[in-house]
Design goal:
about 375 residues; alpha/beta; Rossmann fold; 2 domains; 8-stranded mixed β-sheet; binds 1,4-dihydronicotinamide adenine dinucleotide; binds pyruvic acid; binds magnesium ion; oxidoreductase; Alanine dehydrogenase; Ala_DH/PNT_CS2
Length: about 375
């Protein structure tokens, strides 16, 4: 199979879909790998690193898309990339379709077989291709929130850890999954006073256990959130219902409960965000203010630490990538229900129920799509 990897074109996205290690592995499995020139530079990988691994270098994205059987990326295809996709081609990347009707329309119109990293599952109920980037985004969230809280950025001017004699910042984390746990670890490490809310009691027990009294857990309800907002300096949105649009847990009216200059970091923005007032921002212009509350809503936070993120993502995608290349997508998905869970579109049909529900579109069972 010919595997193609273009350079990412989303603003300030410096990750790349294939590491030289992954390229070498694919070549050793008998596949051809074509990298767009300079695709890896943002993550510190040169064209020479890829040619040493046995890959070919293409001069343009158009050449990569035109000749590859499978396109491997990081971010959802941008409009210019969507125009280059075609039926019979496999696209393996993050998609986040539920909040994105235009992209969904374009993937269906192209007829491409699109497998979303964020909905591939594992035997323990986890999301193995989302988890590494959630680890990164979670660790970044308090760091970005702390920066947002600085006076020069419009924030309340509160230091995360306080100082002797002055209270630390109050950080509220909604969602205690991979992002929430990683965010808690860093926020606790910075000395903040941290509360984590989740709907899963077992998850709260786990957090209670591992943090040994260094944070507070609370069952997530509208009332619990409303009670915590007036005291919060920072609220981190980290909920997920896999594949679905994020539930809106804080309304615009509730911003009035918060302290002026407090910071919202909505990590769940890639699924539409869990604050009514969230909309996606970029690393170039990450913050905006609504009713005196600062919002940081960057949908590709891990791109800020592209080298770490590319390596972590590459480790996680490699076995799935090799299965898709070695067996072809149909057999790979037929033999692995966890990979099949990643299938979001095929031959003009939507195959992921939560996306269909969010966008009010008909859905074909993925097992049925294998026969199309
Ligand atoms: N902005 C960015 O750059 C990035 C965003 N993400 C996003 O972060 C979000 C979280 O991802 P993960 O932590 O990996 O998911 P996860 O599945 O590990 O955790 C989500 C948690 O939310 C909880 N939850 C669901 N509904 C809730 C509610 N109403 N109140 C409180 N908790 C609730 C679940 O019980 C679960 O523990 C996803 O939308 C993911 O796509 C992940 C990586 C990068
Ligand atoms: C998960 C995701 O959307 C990202 O890493 O950008
Ligand atoms: Mg994202």
């Amino acid at each position: 199979m010919k595997i193609g990897c273009p350079k990412e074109i989303k603003p300030q996205e410096f990750r790349v879909g294939l590491t030289p290690h992954a390229a070498r592995e694919a070549v050793q499995h008998g596949h051809r790998v074509v990298m767009e020139t300079d695709a890896g530079l943002g993550a510190g990988f040169t064209d020479e690193d890829y040619t040493a691994a046995g890959a070919d270098i293409a001069a343009s994205a158009a050449e990569v898309f035109a000749t590859a059987d499978m396109i491997v990326k990081v971010k959802e295809p941008q409009p210019a990339e969507r125009a280059l996709l075609r039926a019979g081609q496999v696209l393996f990347t993050y998609l986040h379709l539920a909040p994105d009707p235009e992209q969904t329309h374009d993937l269906l119109a192209a007829g491409v077989t699109a497998i979303a990293y964020e909905t591939v599952t594992d035997a323990r109920g986890g999301l193995p291709l989302l988890a590494p980037m959630s680890e990164v985004a979670g660790r970044l969230a308090p760091q970005m929130g702390a920066w947002t809280l600085q006076k020069a950025n419009g924030g309340r001017g509160v230091l995360m850890g306080g100082v002797p004699g002055v209270r630390p910042a109050n950080v509220v984390i909604i969602g205690g999954g991979v992002v929430g746990t990683a965010a808690a670890r860093v926020a606790v490490g910075m000395g903040a006073n941290v509360t984590v809310l989740d709907r899963s009691v077992p998850r709260l027990s786990y957090l209670d256990d591992i943090f040994q009294g260094r944070l507070t857990t609370q069952y997530s309800s509208a009332a619990a959130i409303a009670e915590l907002l007036p005291e919060a300096d920072m609220v981190i949105g980290a909920v997920l219902i896999p594949g679905a649009a994020a539930p809106k847990l804080v309304t615009r009216a509730q911003l009035a409960l918060m302290r002026p200059g407090a910071a919202i970091v909505d990590v769940a923005i890639d699924q539409g965000g869990c604050f009514e007032t969230s909309h996606p921002t970029t690393h170039q212009d990450p913050i905006y203010t609504v009713d005196g509350i600062l919002h940081y809503c960057v949908a590709n936070m891990p791109g800020a630490v592209a080298r770490t993120s590319t390596q972590a993502l590459g480790n996680a995608t490699m076995p799935f990538l090799l299965a898709l290349a070695d067996k072809g997508w149909r057999r790979a998905c037929a033999e692995d229900p966890h990979l099949l869970a990643g299938l979001n579109t095929h031959a003009g049909r939507l195959t992921y129920a939560a996306v269909g529900a969010a966008l009010n579109l008909p859905v074909v069972d993925p097992a049925e799509a294998l026969r199309l």
